[in-house]
């Protein structure tokens, strides 16, 4: 996983709430068996049907920070939603609220999801709509977002922050505790089912 | 200290706890399907890793499978690749797989309980958000992403951040014609699609206690539609009766010990939840959705709401956008909304009781002119059972299509989709834009409402027939 410390880039204002993972990437695009190539599926229905959709507008082509409304990433657990955003070029998503599974997936995969108050999101939207060239900085080290005159702190637990900044893969970390797992397995309830 | 059921199950599974780190939880059962697993298997391969416990893992083919002509090769080459990839992975890594055509094949959340693999007090995960279904047994069951799927494969554990607890108390008695689907749709409309975020919901109260095991699964299934991590219901005699004698349920002396332990899992008297919600079952009536998220629902007796009636700006904008997509005018009585397709199936309502309920309504009646009704059993066993009871005949005689088991039109990854602009009444769990096919419009309903709607051609309940 790539390390994440500070990212600065242009932003894309997505003024929708409740953007579910079926919108982020419709099911028909889930059939690939690798982790790349999902960018075509990103917001596929909106990109195909709505010429005014923000990603269809040239001024937002280079965006790497997505700014969305509340409850981003609801619905299906498909991690493809994270891959599609990353494959397309997004490094961070800012929103007032994220669905839990999506948030978990994003932070596992190195896409930084940042929770900001609704008013801050509104101000960012206005700023980026007024001037699409506005640069937004997402600083994981300092745990703050900066853009124009805005400097807004955000919360992220120390452990996740450390893991993202080091670019560490969870599995490797857990495998350091194999002894504890083996020990636990000795005391599992005797009636628990096995599949084989 | 008095503890909730969710906390008890969590505590029993902590492998490692360290200051400033998430708890490492042991996973008792890992369910696998073809869509969210290929990248996980690939990750293992690249890292030279194996499955720590293939014997706690089971795989099935469900999301992509066709529900007709299943003995022919899958026509869509990309779907075929995904199925073939799962077959190869299962064989390479030693995972038990129930492929298409197998008697134990079916939607992943239908086959786990059916085999008796889902039991109280377990931790159950799957790369699928509706894993919450298994919480109906008093298991802590949650959906995970593909990175976590790989993590469970490699270590049989997951690092998990703590959750909050919510009690949804459903008091009173359901009136005839009102089902567990109506309970959960009403709960979601009440707390919103984000209302459960960060919580494990425990459904409690006499109306929940009186539900059958399958009806409880319907409730827990849609916990995720309220944004919750998981949903749970305390195990009781209904749970034990359902489990006893199933292929993977404990037997003999182990059964007695298991039941004794399971009884101890219920939330202690005096335990505190972080949040509580109350609902009166007596006041519920058949519920349907009018919008494009599962929280946008209303009683069938009411009308399409006016977006202007929403106080919150975000809700108003969402309602406007939803009505435009759904092509519905504010004030239209929901009973007058005409559908093209009725879908009975999915891990929400594709079990034998659901098929029985729908068949009872449709028996001796006809599917309305111009309406297509599809019955897709949740598993091959459900299909077999339904056929043994003659339900397939009832549906066929009414003019409905009787299909093979799979996810089918719940998400339209196989050929079963709505065409652009088509409208469905569906017993599934998601009414998102395009969920059942690009441009398709979905109304979520119970099996009873689905069947009555098929007969009348507009959203209806059996009382309207
Ligand atoms: S039936 Fe629908 S909700 Fe259930 S697992 Fe399949 S696609 Fe998901």
From TrEMBL, chain A:
The catalysed reaction is:
(2R,3S)-3-isopropylmalate = (2S)-2-isopropylmalate
| One Gene Ontology term from the biological process aspect of the record | L-leucine biosynthetic process
- Give its E.C. classification number: 4.2.1.33
Question: One GO cellular component from the entry?
Answer: 3-isopropylmalate dehydratase complex
- Can you give the residue ranges of the Aconitase A/isopropylmalate dehydratase small subunit swivel domain? 1-118
Q: What class of enzyme is it?
A: lyase
Listed A to Z, the keywords are: Amino-acid biosynthesis, Branched-chain amino acid biosynthesis, Leucine biosynthesis, Lyase
Family statement drawn from the similarity comment of this UniProt entry = Belongs to the LeuD family. LeuD type 1 subfamily.
> How is the subunit organization of this protein annotated in UniProt?
Heterodimer of LeuC and LeuD.
Any idea what job this protein has? Catalyzes the isomerization between 2-isopropylmalate and 3-isopropylmalate, via the formation of 2-isopropylmaleate.
Name of this protein: 3-isopropylmalate dehydratase small subunit
Q: Which organism is it from?
A: Actinorugispora endophytica
From TrEMBL, chain B:
- Asked if the Swiss-Prot or TrEMBL record annotates the protein with the keyword Iron, the reply is yes
Molecular function GO labels: 3-isopropylmalate dehydratase activity; 4 iron, 4 sulfur cluster binding; metal ion binding
The cofactor binding remark recorded in the entry reads:
Binds 1 [4Fe-4S] cluster per subunit.
What pathway does the annotation place this protein in?
A: Amino-acid biosynthesis; L-leucine biosynthesis; L-leucine from 3-methyl-2-oxobutanoate: step 2/4
Q: Which UniProt keywords apply?
A: 4Fe-4S, Amino-acid biosynthesis, Branched-chain amino acid biosynthesis, Iron, Iron-sulfur, Leucine biosynthesis, Lyase, Metal-binding
Quaternary organization: Heterodimer of LeuC and LeuD.
Q: Which residues bind [4Fe-4S] cluster?
A: 347, 407, 410
Q: Which residues cross the membrane?
A: none
The similarity annotation says: Belongs to the aconitase/IPM isomerase family. LeuC type 1 subfamily.
What Pfam families does this protein map onto? Answer: Aconitase (PF00330)
Sequence ranges assigned to domain Aconitase/3-isopropylmalate dehydratase large subunit alpha/beta/alpha in this UniProt record: 7-457
Q: What is the official name of this protein in its record?
A: 3-isopropylmalate dehydratase large subunit
Q: Name one GO biological process term.
A: L-leucine biosynthetic process
Please give the InterPro entries that the UniProt record associates with this protein.
3-IsopropMal_deHydase_lsu, Acnase/IPM_dHydase_lsu_aba_1/3, Acoase/IPM_deHydtase_lsu_aba, Aconitase_4Fe-4S_BS, Aconitase_4Fe-4S_dom, IPM_dehydratase_rel_enz, IPMI_cat
- Region named Disordered: 417-444
Which cofactor does this sequence's record say it needs?
A: [4Fe-4S] cluster
**Documented EC number(s):** 4.2.1.33
Task of the protein:
Catalyzes the isomerization between 2-isopropylmalate and 3-isopropylmalate, via the formation of 2-isopropylmaleate.
Query: What does it catalyze?
Result: (2R,3S)-3-isopropylmalate = (2S)-2-isopropylmalate
């Amino acid at each position: 996983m790539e390390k994440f410390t500070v990212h600065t880039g242009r932003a894309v204002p997505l003024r929708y709430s409740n953007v579910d993972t079926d919108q982020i990437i419709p099911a028909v695009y889930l059939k690939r068996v690798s982790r790349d190539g999902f960018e075509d599926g990103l917001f596929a229905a909106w990109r195909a049907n709505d010429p005014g959709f923000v990603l269809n507008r040239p001024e937002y082509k280079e965006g790497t920070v997505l700014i969305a409304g509340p409850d981003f990433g609801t619905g299906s657990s498909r991690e493809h939603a994270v891959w599609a955003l990353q494959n397309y070029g997004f490094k961070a998503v800012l929103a007032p609220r994220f669905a839990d599974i999506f948030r978990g997936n994003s932070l596992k995969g190195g896409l930084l999801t940042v929770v900001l108050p609704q008013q801050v999101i509104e101000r960012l939207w206005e700023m980026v709509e007024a001037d699409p060239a506005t640069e937004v900085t997402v600083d994981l080290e300092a745990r703050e977002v900066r853009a124009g005159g805005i400097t807004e702190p955000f919360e992220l637990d120390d452990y996740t922050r450390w893991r993202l900044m080091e670019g560490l893969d969870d599995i490797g970390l857990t495998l350091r505790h194999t002894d504890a797992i083996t020990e636990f397995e000795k005391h599992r309830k005797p009636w628990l089912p096995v599949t084989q | 200290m008095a503890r909730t059921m969710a906390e008890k199950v969590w505590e029993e599974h902590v492998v490692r706890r360290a200051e400033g780190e998430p708890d490492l939880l042991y996973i008792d059962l890992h369910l696998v399907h073809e869509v969210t697993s290929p990248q996980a298997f690939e990750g293992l391969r690249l890292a030279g890793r194996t499955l720590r416990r293939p014997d706690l893992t089971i795989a099935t083919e469900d999301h992509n499978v066709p529900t007709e002509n299943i003995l022919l090769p899958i026509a869509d080459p990309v779907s075929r690749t995904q199925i073939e990839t799962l077959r190869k992975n299962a064989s390479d890594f030693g995972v038990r797989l129930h492929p298409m055509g197998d008697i134990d094949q079916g939607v992943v959340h239908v086959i786990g309980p059916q085999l008796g693999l889902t039991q109280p007090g377990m931790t159950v995960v799957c790369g699928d958000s509706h894993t919450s279904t298994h919480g109906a047994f008093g298991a802590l069951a949650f959906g995970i992403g593909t990175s976590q799927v790989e993590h469970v494969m490699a270590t049989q554990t997951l690092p998990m951040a703590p959750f909050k607890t919510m009690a949804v108390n459903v008091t009173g008695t359901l009136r005839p014609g009102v089902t567990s689907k109506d309970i959960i749709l009403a709960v979601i409309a009440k707390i919103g699609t984000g209302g459960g975020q960060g919580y494990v919901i425990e459904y409690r109260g006499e109306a929940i206690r009186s539900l059958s095991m399958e009806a409880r699964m319907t409730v827990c299934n849609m916990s995720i539609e309220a944004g919750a991590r998981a949903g749970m219901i305390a195990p009781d005699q209904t749970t034990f009766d359902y489990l006893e004698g199933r292929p993977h349920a404990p037997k003999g002396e182990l059964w007695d010990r298991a039941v004794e332990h399971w009884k101890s899992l219920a939330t202690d008297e005096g335990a505190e939840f972080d949040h509580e919600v109350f609902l009166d079952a007596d006041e519920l009536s058949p519920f349907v959705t009018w919008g494009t998220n599962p929280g946008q629902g209303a009683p069938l007796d009411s009308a399409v709401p006016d977006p202007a009636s929403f106080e919150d700006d975000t809700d108003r904008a969402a309602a406007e956008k939803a009505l435009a997509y759904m092509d519905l005018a504010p004030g239209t009585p929901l009973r007058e909304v005409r559908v093209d397709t009725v879908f009975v199936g999915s891990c929400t309502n594709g079990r034998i009781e659901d098929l029985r309920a729908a068949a009872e309504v449709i028996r001796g009646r006809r599917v309305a002119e111009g309406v297509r009704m599809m019955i897709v059993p949740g598993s091959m066993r459900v299909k077999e059972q339904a056929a043994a009871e003659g339900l397939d005949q009832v549906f066929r005689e009414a003019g409905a299509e009787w299909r093979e088991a799979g996810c089918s039109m719940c998400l339209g990854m196989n050929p079963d989709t709505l065409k652009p602009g088509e409208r469905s009444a569906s017993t599934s769990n998601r009414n998102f834009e395009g969920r059942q096919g690009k441009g398709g419009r979905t109304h979520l309903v119970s099996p009873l409402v689905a069947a009555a709607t098929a007969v009348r051609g507009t959203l209806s309940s059996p009382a309207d027939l």
